[in-house]
Write a structure and sequence with these properties.
By secondary structure, the protein is an alpha/beta fold. The chain has a domain of about 260 residues: Type I PLP-dependent aspartate aminotransferase-like (Major domain) (Aspartate Aminotransferase, domain 2, 3-Layer(aba) Sandwich), CATH 3.40.640. It contains 14 helices and 15 strands. Strands 4-10-9-8-7-5-6 form a seven-stranded mixed sheet, sandwiched between helices. A four-stranded mixed sheet has the order 1-2-3-13. It binds pyridoxal-5'-phosphate. Pyridoxal-5'-phosphate binds next to helix 5.
Length: about 450
């Protein structure tokens, strides 16, 4: 019998309420705070709050707790590293855990050939570094990004974003030279074609040649195309199979760098280490963070050796590749690597479970994704996104002990810890079904 959530005090309980009141008076009002979860501890796929309620985690702290909460092997690696030394600065000196991690990452993406690695503290810093590297290497200025994209919160990254206007408004002037073009949404084609037509003939990339390069800008002005091979914050969107292949061909033809932002889709989430492998296209630069160290702050820029041409002193970081984070990342890798085939199987159970629910609840629209990166869209009868509904669903699920997280306009992302079992997936699906029954059709 699999464990179940246990709600003993309707959340937020008294201890949670008191902490939330303290938090609200001193923390930045820019924090989102999806629902009033005040965590006391985590263990695998289970999270306990300060009032003793236990939740099943289907969102892993935004796809970060890849090995589950406080995996013993990751915790032991952190403790061991912390006992040796906390810091020396990888930009200026050497240590084995950083070298071992970079060795792993430099051979992790099939088709990239010999690669080199720069370690950062976060996803957005990896994006920022990649903007610099792309401009430095190509001596070109323009960057192409996609509608619906999310790349982080620093000035360069928000210049590439196009998923929520509030992330950019009043922060300008943003980085000049960024062009946003439509992403491939095969289920709701960007160019108003029928979805099935787009699955095979997707024009979202080829329009660069037949439209953008003819009327907007020249290809030899473009340093890089930044793309999430599976869009994350934009709604867990899987592009049409042809899309990334076309981007690869166009980049090769025009000397443009193809940069995959795998901050969310990487580190086993798709059932391979990176979505690049799952989707069969190799970028010139791949960015990773989030799940790489199970929650410790570290990210990476992995670039073909022929592209990482910036010389000594052009880029660096005081904390990037911190030894404790490197130890956590190496331990995370050791846990995830052997799990990859299982992630695909468990992901199939989740996908099929959602498809079964869709038959009963037709307001579940598109279900998409692969491995344990699956999105389910919620729609009104006239197919409009049911944006308010996903908020209500998150709240109700929370009160029943299931942690969900939305993305896009009206999508629930299913991104549990990668160690989750089929039995735990079924428990989550049962709670989801109860919630959908209780909430009824979106109004
Ligand atoms: N890129 C993608 C695709 C992301 O999903 C995120 C975060 O959600 C980022 C970049 C930014 O990463 P971080 O929050 O670690 O700075």
């Amino acid at each position: 019998m699999s464990q179940r959530p246990s709600i003993i005090t309707p959340p937020p309980g008294p201890k949670a309420k008191a902490l939330i009141a303290r938090d609200t008076s001193v923390t930045s009002p820019s924090y989102i705070k999806e629902y009033p979860l005040v965590i006391e501890r985590g263990d695998g796929v289970w999270v306990t709050d300060v009032d003793g309620n236990r939740y099943l985690d289907f969102m892993a702290g935004i796809a970060v707790a890849s090995t589950g909460h406080s995996h013993p092997k990751v915790v032991a690696a952190i403790q061991e590293a912390a006992g040796k030394f906390l810091h020396i600065c990888g930009t200026d000196f050497y240590y084995e855990s950083m070298i071992a991690l970079c060795e792993r990452l430099s051979t992790a993406v099939p088709g990239m050939g010999k690669s080199k690695v720069f370690l950062t503290n976060s996803g957005t810093e990896a994006v920022e570094g990649a903007i610099k590297l792309a401009r430095y290497h190509t001596r070109r200025q323009k960057l192409i990004a996609f509608k619906g994209a999310f790349h982080g919160r620093t000035m360069g990254a928000i210049s590439l974003n196009s998923s929520k206007p509030g992330q950019r408004a009043h922060f300008g002037p943003l980085l000049p030279g960024v062009e946003h073009i439509p992403y491939s949404y095969p289920y709701r084609c960007s160019y108003n074609h029928k979805a099935e037509w787009c699955q095979v003939n997707c024009e979202c990339a080829t329009k660069l040649e037949t439209d953008w390069f003819l009327s907007h800008f020249l290809p030899d002005e473009v340093a890089a195309i930044f793309v999430e091979p599976i869009q994350g914050e934009g709604g867990y969107v899987m592009p049409a199979p042809k899309f990334l292949k076309d981007l690869r061909r166009i980049c090769d033809q025009h000397g443009i760098l193809l940069i995959f932002d795998e901050v969310q889709s990487g580190i086993g989430r798709t059932g391979q280490m990176f979505a690049a492998e799952t989707l069969g296209v190799a970028p010139d630069i791949l960015l990773t963070a989030k799940g790489i160290a199970s929650g410790m702050p570290i990210g990476a820029i992995i670039a073909r050796e022929s592209v990482m041409t910036w010389p000594r002193g052009t880029h660096g970081s005081t904390y990037g590749g911190n030894p404790v984070c490197c130890a956590a990342a190496n331990a995370t890798w050791d846990v995830i690597q052997p799990l990859l085939p299982k992630i695909r199987e468990v992901g199939k159970t989740l996908y099929e479970g959602l498809t079964t629910l869709q038959k009963k609840f037709p307001f579940i629209g598109d279900i998409r994704g692969t491995g344990l990166m699956i999105g389910a869209e919620f729609i009104h009868t006239d197919k409009r996104p049911a944006s308010d509904y996903v908020g209500k669903l998150e709240q109700l699920a929370f009160r029943k002990g299931l942690l969900l997280l939305s993305c896009g306009k009206s999508t629930i992302r299913f991104a549990p810890p990668l160690i989750i079992t089929e039995a735990e997936i079924k428990v989550g699906l049962e709670i989801l079904e109860q919630c959908l029954t209780e909430l009824g059709v979106p109004s």
